[in-house]
Amino acid sequence: MADRGTLLREVIGGKAAKAMEAGLELATVGDLLRHYPRRFSERGELTDLSRLVEGEEVTVQAKIASVKGRRIPGRKLHILEVVISSGSHKASLSFFNQSWRERELIPGREGFFAGKVTRFRSTLQLNSPDYLLNDAEDALSAADFANALIPVYPAASGIPSWTIARCVQLVLQSLDEVPDPLPDEVRRRADLVELDWALRHIHRPDTRGEYAQARRRLAFDEAFGVQLVLAQRRHAVAENPALARPYRPGGLVDAFDALLPFTFTEEQSEIAGLISTELAGRHPMQRLLQGEVGSGKTVVALRAMLQVVDNGGQAALLAPTEVLAAQHEATILDLLGELARAGQLGGSEAGTRVSLLTGSMSAAARRGALLDAASGAAGIVIGTHALIQDHVQFADLGLVVVDEQHRFGVEQRDALRSKASAPPHMLVMTATPIPRTVAITVFGDLEISELRQLPAGRAQVETTVVPVLERPAWLERVWQRVHEEVAKGRQVYLVCPRIGEGDEVDDIGAPSDEDALQAASVLATHAELSAGELSDLRLGVMHGRLPAEQKSSVMADFVSGACQVLISTTVIEVGVNVPNATLMIIMDADRFGVSQLHQLRGRVGRGSFGAEHRNDCLLLTKLPAGHPSVQRLMAVAGTSDGFALARIDLEQRREGDVLGAAQSGRRSRLKLLSLLRDEDLILQARAEALTVIRADPALSSHPELEEFLWESFDSERADYLQKS
């Protein structure tokens, strides 16, 4: 008999086990049991061939529609071309020098076909696929094939789905009863089947209802494991006292409020008050502040920083790029005025000092910033990754603000937090709205606040999809619009997916590699427009490879108006604030994700030019109107609600690994959990995890849950969650 730790080679044989480990990274019985079916086919059911994706290993169920063999003149090459059909869609199979297959691949026969999806002359096909005909002698075992539901597994080259199915059957036959780590009361409250039953019926259900029960239990386990770790994290933070930083009447906060030329929205006031209360507590604030582009997150965060400074502490603002760090410095200096120049000519005696620390600063400027931070002269220190270097010290770090947190690794955020003598308060900001289920799965140890209201006077941005190949005259109109805006004294952003020729592109939704090579680049676009349609305008170039001084110079020119059109990559995606910019043009917009497009659109509409002045975002694409990527662009054009777009984005681009496998270099263990479909299950798992941890924070009374966490995430991934 076998348990989940048994090596596969002891159950299914060395050759098959070696193929499983090499192709699918499955080494143990437990690994194979967690390799769940992608879907189930019912005998006689045909797969929809319209969902084939180039590059994927697939198994499809289809009927042979036609077979044609031909020889290539002058070459010893025979090609067998087979067309398979699901009724409404067809796909091609190709076999080289295998003419004997004509004897069994007969039109009308039905079977499973497995291989890698490739493209030949714009047609998707399977090249020399494995296949299993329903009436073939080497079909699945009678028990497997008689089953009404036939599992179809994620496969790899040389390991078709039916081979995996046979191996799973062998494992299930030899498997000991699997102990259940969930406490009985949790299982009862959540109405879950036992783990042993779930593992067997996720692979071999008799009905789709049994599969649904098994899936629900195993998806709950995935959600529960994540929420247990985050609940432990939350409890540990609450047990670790921080220095209280209460509101001080008559201090910087009051002076700042008096300076503001606008009134907080109702949401801003509510969240600012909540943060103020948490800063006054003895437990470290741990809050995620997410909001629409231009919703005023920076102003709310600055008010929190000033409350800490009023208590003799310091605040550090960590930004992902030098452009964004410099923009934050400029914004904060502008908002604070004389309050940011303590000890300087014209500065307020009640003020503080704001310092900027980046990696490209001159030695003298760097020494000054380091001294300001270490001595406490600077109440607010803004910086990039340079802030987390070992030699950077603070006199009394009381608040860490992380902007665009997804740009930073866990260790980087933790390194900045460790520079405080007592646990600092933490405020994490993001201008990329996150669906609620994602937020509670990834940031379950943080309290979550949302800013959905836009400040009064914020202009709407009209978004239009421009199909430049189908409507070439529209492209001419785009360049006319640029001239019209510049003639009014306004400025224009023009964003490209690539820096130069040969660079990779963020190929979201791209139809083929050939098309990806044609995506617009900053350098080529600048060269073309400066010699052509925009030759009479002052153009600037901005991208991530420019030296820091040159980036600063380009942005200064754009802010001052010396540059009329800024041709850039997405380095200007977040934080950049030029109120005079009223037109955003995005070349090959289909190369970008929904949330990214929404961020870019948010760079315009920041000025107060009156309702009569338009602010526009033009999404240029070479793709035809019916292409799925164009439908994504239409979704962006159809709404300005970033939270709605974030949900659409998640639905369209796959959910990825919320446990940071990309950072750890390891594969995700979330195999079944859908952050959108399983919202109720995630909320239930979170509630159960909080109940367990409140009663037993160290899980000392639940050793089986400790083992469950290790098995679910391994120590490296659990450590990732603990630090996030």
What does this structure look like?
This protein is of the alpha/beta class. 39% of the residues lie in helices and 17% in strands. Among the domains are: 44-152, OB fold (Dihydrolipoamide Acetyltransferase, E2P), CATH 2.40.50.140; 252-451, 3-Layer(aba) Sandwich (Rossmann fold); 462-639, P-loop containing nucleotide triphosphate hydrolases (Rossmann fold). The strands form 4 sheets. It has a 7-stranded parallel sheet with strand order 11-12-10-13-14-9-15, with helices on both faces. It has a 6-stranded parallel sheet with strand order 16-21-20-17-19-18, with helices on both faces. A 5-stranded mixed β-barrel has the order 2-3-4-6-5. Helix 14 links the parallel strand 13 and strand 14 (425-430). Helix 9 runs antiparallel to helix 11 and helix 10 (266-279) runs parallel beside helix 11 (297-310). It is globular and about 90 Å long. It starts with 8 loop residues before the first helix and ends with a helix. Mean pLDDT is 84; it is low at 136-143, 506-517, 657-666 and 720-724.
Rg on CA atoms, Å? 30 Å
CATH homology superfamily of the domain at 252-451: P-loop containing nucleotide triphosphate hydrolases
Spans of at least 5 consecutive residues with low confidence: 136-143, 506-517, 657-666, 720-724
Strand content: 15-25%
- General form: globular
Q: Which structural category do the helix and sheet elements fall into?
A: alpha/beta
- Kindly identify the CATH topology of the domain at 252-451: Rossmann fold
Total count of strands: 21
Number of helices: 25
What does the secondary structure layout of this molecule look like, with pairings?
Blueprint: H1 9-12, H2 14-24, H3 29-33, E1 39-42, E2 57-71, E3 78-85, E4 90-96, E5 110-120, E6 123-127, E7 130-133, H4 142-146, E8 149-152, H5 161-174, H6 184-190, H7 195-201, H8 208-239, H9 252-259, H10 266-279, E9 286-291, H11 297-310, E10 314-318, H12 322-336, E11 354-357, H13 363-375, E12 380-383, E13 397-403, H14 410-417, E14 425-430, H15 436-442, E15 447-451, E16 462-467, H16 472-487, E17 491-495, H17 513-517, H18 522-530, E18 539-542, H19 548-560, E19 565-568, E20 581-586, H20 594-601, E21 616-621, H21 628-638, H22 642-653, H23 661-664, H24 679-695, H25 703-723
